[in-house]
Amino acid sequence: MQIPDYKDVLAAHERIRPWIHQTPVLTSSYFNERTGAELFFKCENFQKAGAFKARGATNAVFGLPQESLAAGVATHSSGNHALSLAYAAGARGIPCHVVMPHTAPQAKKDAVMGYGGQITECEASTSAREAAFAELQARTGADFVHPYNDPRVIAGQATCSRELVQQVSELDVVIAPIGGGGMISGCCLTLTAIAPETAIYAAEPQQADDAARSLKAGRLIADDAPQTIADGLKVPMKDLTWHFVREHVTDILTVDEQSIIDAMRLVWQRMKIVIEPSCAVPVAAILNNPNVFANKRVGIIITGGNVDLERLPWQ
Amino acid sequence: MQIPDYKDVLAAHERIRPWIHQTPVLTSSYFNERTGAELFFKCENFQKAGAFKARGATNAVFGLPQESLAAGVATHSSGNHALSLAYAAGARGIPCHVVMPHTAPQAKKDAVMGYGGQITECEASTSAREAAFAELQARTGADFVHPYNDPRVIAGQATCSRELVQQVSELDVVIAPIGGGGMISGCCLTLTAIAPETAIYAAEPQQADDAARSLKAGRLIADDAPQTIADGLKVPMKDLTWHFVREHVTDILTVDEQSIIDAMRLVWQRMKIVIEPSCAVPVAAILNNPNVFANKRVGIIITGGNVDLERLPWQ
């Protein structure tokens, strides 16, 4: 297990800068009044390819050695990592192969193909996905860029919290959703290095709470194919992300499905931004746990904005 | 007819600054590639009360003399002006009475009441609205703040294009939707004073094209209660706004309903921002008329983001 360090984050930030946005930080007087906290929304829904995953993917793709370029890259992903890898591969002009569950939102499939990515569909379980991927990789010889359990990807995601710390001073807390744990691991990597006073919280759907149970049990628990509206958060942690979570995360708060939908709708309505269900999970966690966050300066990673506009959860 | 001038815009900007946001200007590589133009989206959907109308309303409310405060303000509005006047009156702590068509989106009614405004409902036609309002005003003695045909309101709206010109240099064109013409009049007021090289375009639904027909005919034509998805654009121009449009608008482009819906959906999907149908009208006009806008630097006023999330037009 190769654990990335903060020097890798600095190198990643230099490498990916031409290919990603420095996303804005938004505030909302409504949410501040409602929560009693000072909230800073780091808007990765405005990121290239619509999600923070462009950071890790471009870091992996633009760090590839010359001899790997012809075979290109490959991955399996519930959506945003696939988009982002296709975006990054398209930017470098190399092939990109993606295994996606057939249940992934059509908007994400269309976007992968729009960037020139090639999709192989599979069943929705983690095990089915990994089997389909093994076949693909054997056939193409492409470099596997794991959606989160990859030091290049984690170093790339870590540039997000680095920007946030540069944009907003003296944060008491940073909170992000947790699925596989790539973003949270990146937060751990950055914040322990340059903002060690900032507490790191994760938020997770109750219906896919393997990370919360892992933290409580002190050992890695991985569920296969849990069901939640937050489709980016169905995947389990792996050894590398579990390392960061176990070492540095203060707590993992879980929220029910209705709270996720309500929080998502409220952000759309009040802040006029399109966010995915996954990023509504930390917002719901803050709304449901005012005692944890009141009177604190809280950075929230808004992880992405790729939703099927035809299938909104409150309709 | 009292015609505001640029000194009124400067005074308005000073007066309203504590109560409004300087909204950001967003760009989109997708829309730039798609249109061949360089587009700058002035995001008044992020404005207080969710629309540019907060500018004109706060200018009127905070300019009121002491002796008018007890009776407060009153208006009739298809929605955003009502919200904005309620917001401004709430900020100054004075009463706000609003006549609204019963067909106005529930989200707008709720928001007016949330700011402390008092609603009187009426039928959806302009004539019915004006009759209900006359009764209300006689009863309360409140100061009438017209949604657009008011020099205080136009001077306030004009601060939006002033910000835009300060944020983005050398615009070839500014385009905004036209309903009653308050925003467009504000653009005329500002741009003729400080950016006289910038052409001013308006965009209008084909199904509510009285402004386009007026400009072509050279005389004011006012339809009563046209039907369009762009509910903010159903009202007709009046003498003051017609003065600015006739004098300074290069052209008024009209677009069909499906183009409005498609453009709205595309902005949500690609830019991850929530915009109303009204602000999709200029976006649709640019997509439908590439010959007019290609190779130009184009500022687009995104007028607001107040939509009923339960009733989206593509569902």
TrEMBL record, chains A, B:
Keyword DNA-binding: no
Short name of one Pfam family: PALP
Example GO biological process: D-serine biosynthetic process
UniProt xrefs under CDD domains: Thr-dehyd
UniProt cofactor(s): pyridoxal 5'-phosphate
GO molecular function: ATP binding; L-serine ammonia-lyase activity; magnesium ion binding; pyridoxal phosphate binding; serine racemase activity; threonine racemase activity
Alphabetic keyword roster: Lyase, Pyridoxal phosphate
InterPro entries: BHydaspDhtse (IPR054856), TrpB-like_PALP (IPR001926), TrpB-like_PALP_sf (IPR036052)
Matches recorded under NCBIfam families: BHydaspDhtseBhcB (NF045641)
Family of the protein in this entry: Belongs to the serine/threonine dehydratase family.
Protein name, as recorded: Pyridoxal-phosphate dependent enzyme
Species this protein is from: Spiribacter salilacus
